[in-house]
Amino acid sequence: MPQMAPINWLLLFMLFSLILILFNIMNYYISIPNSPETYAKSFKMNSFNWKW
């Protein structure tokens, strides 16, 4: 089995690095965050009237 040339290892490393970076960028920008208004609606404000 012939050995692989160092330039091929470098190209493979760059290819997998590029795929990893593109995958991470796609995952970051595809997700749609919830708007702050939905968070505000989910919290109920309970006001306490303290009777001492």
TrEMBL record:
One Pfam family per UniProt: ATP-synt_8
Organism per entry: Protohermes concolorus
Entry coiled-coil feature ranges: none
GO MF annotation: an example: proton transmembrane transporter activity
Top-rank lineage group of the source organism: Eukaryota
Chief localisation class: mitochondrion
Protein's name in the database: ATP synthase complex subunit 8
Family stated for the protein in its record: Belongs to the ATPase protein 8 family.
Entry keywords, A to Z: CF(0), Hydrogen ion transport, Ion transport, Membrane, Mitochondrion, Transmembrane, Transmembrane helix, Transport
GO biological process, one term: proton motive force-driven ATP synthesis
Membrane-traversing stretches: 7-30
Subunit-level organization: F-type ATPases have 2 components, CF(1) - the catalytic core - and CF(0) - the membrane proton channel.
GO cellular component: mitochondrial membrane; proton-transporting ATP synthase complex
Localization in the cell: Mitochondrion membrane
Protein's membrane topology: Single-pass membrane protein
